[in-house]
Write a structure and sequence with these properties.
Length: 182
């Protein structure tokens, strides 16, 4: 495939690095804000705060069903670190720097592994709390919970899988092979 076929205009740079870079930057910022929010909630929302907001009975349920504080903290720090890695990689792709491709590949691989760990933890949490949740939610909540886990996994994997596939395309590989390594 000639340069004309790849870009549409002879001598012009491909547009995909700008698009993929900006989308990655947006995803990274959203990920980072979400993780900071989780950490702030951990620090600010005490059982007393929940009780003032929801009433004692509902607050007791919320507090009981929350994941352990250590897990929330570790997950938020890992998520924030992954967001920073994606941000840097996406900025570099946007600037047509080959190192951004490698960073985004690494981000994708680690994010996929982290998503599997998080989903496994969520399933384990659901199993541990199944009796209590069943007492709260009459009916077939298990189907809705399983659907929620599948949707969450799909959302968590969409961009990393897209990046791995996109960056493996021959036309894309030829493009970033011409970029500086820095």
């Amino acid at each position: 495939m000639s340069r004309l076929e790849e870009t549409g205009v002879e001598g012009k740079r491909a547009r995909w690095p700008g698009v993929v870079g900006v989308v990655g930057i947006i995803v990274a910022v959203l990920m980072f804000v979400d993780q900071v929010d989780d950490l702030l909630a951990l620090l600010v929302l005490s059982p007393e705060t929940w009780s003032r907001w929801l009433g004692p009975k509902q607050a007791e349920i919320v507090v009981r069903l929350m994941p352990p504080v250590g897990w929330v903290a570790v997950a938020a720090v890992i998520g924030a670190a992954l967001a920073v890695l994606l941000f840097i990689g996406s900025m570099r792709i946007h600037r047509h720097m080959r190192s951004g491709v490698e960073l985004c590949r690494r981000w994708s691989q680690v994010t996929i592994a982290w998503a599997v760990i998080q989903i496994t933890a969520a399933i384990s949490w659901l199993q541990r709390n199944a009796d209590f949740i069943s007492d709260l939610a009459n009916g077939e909540w298990q189907g809705a919970a399983a659907f929620g886990v599948v949707v969450a996994l799909g959302v968590m994997l969409a961009f990393p899988v897209f990046l791995l596939v996109w960056l493996s395309r021959p036309v894309v590989r030829r493009e970033y092979a011409t970029w500086p390594t820095a």
